[in-house]
Amino acid sequence: MAKFDSALDLHLLLVGGDGRPSGVPRHIRHLLRALSEQVKITVASEANQGGYQDLGSARHMVVPGLSSRLSLSHLVRGWRGLYRLLHSEHYNIVWLHARVPVLLGRLMLTVRLWRPEAETRVVVTYHGLPFGPGHKRLASNLSRLIEKCILSACPPLHLVFLSQSQIGMMERAVGANCLKRHRVHMLPNSSDIGLLPAPSARRAGQRHLVMTGRCGWQKNYPQALRFFAHLPSDFTLTLCGLGTQNEKFQAEATRILTPQALKRVRFEGPLIDVRPVLASADGYLLTSRYEGLPIGALEAFEAGLPIILNNFEGAEELASLHPMALCMTFDDLPRNAERTVDLIDQYIANRDKAEEKIRAAWKANWSYDQFATRARLLLTDILD
User: Fold this and answer.
1) How far apart are CA 374 and CA 365, in angstroms?
2) Taking residues 64-78, what's their average pLDDT?
3) How far is residue 102's CA from residue 16's CA, in Å, rounded to a whole number?
4) Nearest one of 298, 296, 228 to 263, comparing CA atoms
5) How far apart are CA 118 and CA 129, in angstroms?
6) What local confidence, expressed as pLDDT, does residue 306 receive?
7) What pTM, to 2 d.p., does this model score?
8) Which helix (H) or strand (E) holds 305?
9) pLDDT value at 109 more than 50
10) What is the distance between the alpha carbons of residues 113 and 323, in angstroms, rounded to a whole number?
11) Beta-strand runs (E) in 181-304
């Protein structure tokens, strides 16, 4: 920070996307909490719908069109809104997060419609790579090509990844020489749900799994339901997240599950506070096709729960640090169910000690304190 008179005079712009609860708004709120005493912060996103609560001293600017949506008019609205935002005032750091502003902001740099001042740092966080295993093939190939072209043509950026495996995937996709044009950093996600309430919903003789996220290709909720059909009849499943409350998704669930099994599934929709659901759970399920570093899994980690993960890119890295985790490909559902039952029974038989061990591992790797220290060091590195 030596080039600036005072860090407190610095203005940081954090640009998100959708205003509903998800991983990006939580990551931005964590950054805000970690850095607000060092820099003045403005947060930009779509209208707040629960994702951007409690921003404290930060200013929140609403920019329509920043969420991911298959609509040309929506994309044009986002382009215009982001263009106006970036030219509205001086920012020392512009930090792009969600997929649409990450794409549009770098395109503006590439075609020189946005020319930041020499002292302005432009930072991009990849909350998940837009290509690779689990993505639809055509979209993945197109995204890989776009990524290589942009990173080859735009001015040097600060690129922030959530994990080492993400950095490796990007280097293989665009080439080492292309990536070397930019400054590469790593800042893993964290969680900070704090103490859980008393588990009012936990019932004797039942084993309860929870999954959080939003309906769509990525999270693969139908696979979670197909897997649940192979679990014993005393298992219950709670599905949380945007879209799980919709009639269309619940109609799909009725085609996958028998009426008896469907009665043991709860569709909660998006939740502002996930703690009561985690407090009642005996395990956390995540059947995603791809992820960055899923905050929902870290919250379950913090809650002291065992986790059952699909073998997406980076899942083994996360599972290796968890004392009671399964990482498996959901292609043999009866065998997957057997392994899950064994894990949950081991956990329930020694819950207090298992929770303590899991939370200790979380604290050593994914706690908010760890995140805050890394974020402040990253800020210094970016400014230097």
Assistant:
1) 11
2) 93
3) 9
4) 228
5) 28
6) 98
7) 0.91
8) none
9) yes
10) 50
11) 183-186, 207-212, 235-240, 265-269, 283-286
338: tokens are 């057997």
Which residues lie closer than 8 Å to 103 by C-beta, 6 or more apart?
146, 150
pLDDT tens digits, 301-359: 999 999 999 999 889 999 999 999 999 999 999 999 999 999 999 999 999 999 999 99
CA distance 333 to 109: 47
d(CA 309, CA 316): 9
Sheet holding 158-161, edge to edge: 59-62, 40-45, 11-15, 93-96, 121-126, 158-161, 183-186
- Local structure of 343: helix, strand or coil: helix
Residue in the structure block whose two tokens are 């893993």: 188
**For 213-247, how does the pLDDT look when each residue is reduced to its tens digit (9 = 90+)?**
888 899 999 999 999 999 999 999 999 988 898 98
Q: What are phi and psi of 246, to 5 degrees?
A: -75, 145
Helices (H), 36-136: 72-86, 99-110
- Dig out the tokens for 13 from the structure: 């712009």
> How far is Cα 307 from Cα 211, in angstroms, rounded to an integer?
10
The residue type found at 279 is A
What are the structure tokens assigned to 111, written together? 């075609």
Task: Return the closest-CA partner of residue 24 out of 275, 294, 240, 211.
Answer: 294
**d(Cα 144, Cα 159) in Å, to the nearest integer?**
16
**Tokens standing for 359?**
């939370």
For residues 127 and 37, the answer to whether their CB atoms sit within 8 Å is no
DSSP characters over 120-132? -EEEEEESS-SSS
